[in-house]
Amino acid sequence: MTPVEIIDRMEKLFPDAKCELVHKDTYEMAVAVILSAQTTDISVNRVTPALFEKYPDIASLAQADQADVERLIASLGLYRNKARSIISFAKGVMDQYGGTIPQTMEELVTLSGVGRKCANVILSECFQIPSLAVDTHVSRVSKRLGLCYKNDTPEVIERKLKKKIPQERWIRTHHTMIFFGRYMCHARKPACTNCPFKGFCREKDKNLNPVRQSEVI
């Protein structure tokens, strides 16, 4: 099964895969994705309504009191660091880019809290620029299905996936792989019984004659 065929099969399982972070504009999306590090989208969606009501735009967040932001997002893991990051992010946008969130990878990663994964999400979700973010779900699924090597970094995985998947499918592939990892190929107890890839999954079905890495990679 080729990488494109793998993604085709995933899309049949999850035809409505999409970003699950609730947002209404680029500002809210950017802040939400920074807050989503090492926590669930559901958890982020619980705290952002109050956060965005108090700080409705990048300018107001740039002037926010950190203790107040911490209070609003206290249910999230690492909330102190995250409060610091989103305030610094807002200040960076105001000081470096005149209050407008930039639309290039090179500019986005200069901002606090924004690594390559976050930048790819912002580019794809807010600006519809072909991007393929690699989070924990995409990384796990790629390794289990032989789309990359076990020790590949997220950046290497991103590069390999972009070579295997047509550019016009990058954004949807990102969402599809996340849904597959989130709702079927779980980290600890994957739903292998109904998985269409169990015949060659390298993680859970090692006794089912898995394909050689070179056949997929």
Explain how this protein is built:
It is a single chain. The chain has 217 residues and is mostly helical. The chain has 2 domains: 3-16 and 133-216, Helix-hairpin-Helix base-excision DNA repair enzymes (C-terminal) (Endonuclease Iii, domain 2, Orthogonal Bundle), CATH 1.10.1670.10; 26-127, Orthogonal Bundle (Endonuclease III, domain 1), CATH 1.10.340. The protein is built from 12 helices and no strands. The protein has helices at 3-13, 26-35, 41-54, 58-62, 66-72, 79-97, 105-108, 116-127, 136-144, 154-164, 170-183, 213-216. Helix 9 crosses helix 11 (170-183). The protein is globular and about 55 Å long. The relative contact order is 0.13. The model is unreliable at 205-217 (pLDDT under 50).
Please state the CA-atom Rg, rounded to the nearest Å. Answer: 18 Å
- The first-to-last residue Cα distance is 11 Å
* Average pLDDT level: 92
For the record, the count of structural domains works out to: 2
Low-confidence region ranges? 205-217
Q: Examine the secondary-structure arrangement and name the CATH architecture of the largest domain.
A: Orthogonal Bundle
Structural class estimated from helices and strands: mainly alpha
**General form:** globular
Number of helices: 12
Largest sheet: none
H-E order: HHHHHHHHHHHH
Q: If you consult CATH, what is the topology of the largest domain?
A: Endonuclease III, domain 1
DSSP summary, beta strand count: 0
CATH superfamily heading of the largest domain: Hypothetical protein, domain 2
Q: What fraction of residues sit in β-strands? A: under 5%
CATH class of the largest domain: Mainly Alpha
Residue share in helices? Answer: 55-70%
